[in-house]
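Recap from last week: sequence in, structure out.
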Amino acid sequence: MKPYKIPESVLVLIHTSDMEVLLLERADRPGFWQSVTGSLDAHDEPLPATAARELFEETGIVADGERIRLVDWHLSNIYEIYPVWRHRYAPGVTHNTEHVFSVCVPRDIPVILSPREHLRHAWLPYLEAADRCFSSSNAEAVLLLPRHLGA
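Predicted structure tokens:
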């Protein structure tokens, strides 16, 4: 039996310096667009390590700490887990805590999707990206991007 998911995750907003945002279409829910997301693999996994791992697993982008740097927004969202995904968590778990990170990348960076997770990707102006996100916490993070870039 597969172990239950830990109800603590990261959201990694991938963007360019001119606020284009990379969104990914979920393979298990076509039409559902989102940023990189993923749960901790272990309760003691550091959040930046989770963010870097998920970024690489879902897009092939490596946060090297120099050219590509993850930024911890020190922002957490607690939200109700959609009923369709609750079976992945221990019985009685209904909420997840999501920690927001971002990473600024060049627009021409290669994006290599994990085919079991995502069907396709799109670069969108941040307001259009916010409208396309199926998750309200993801949309809210996209809308906060100008403030985090000092725009």
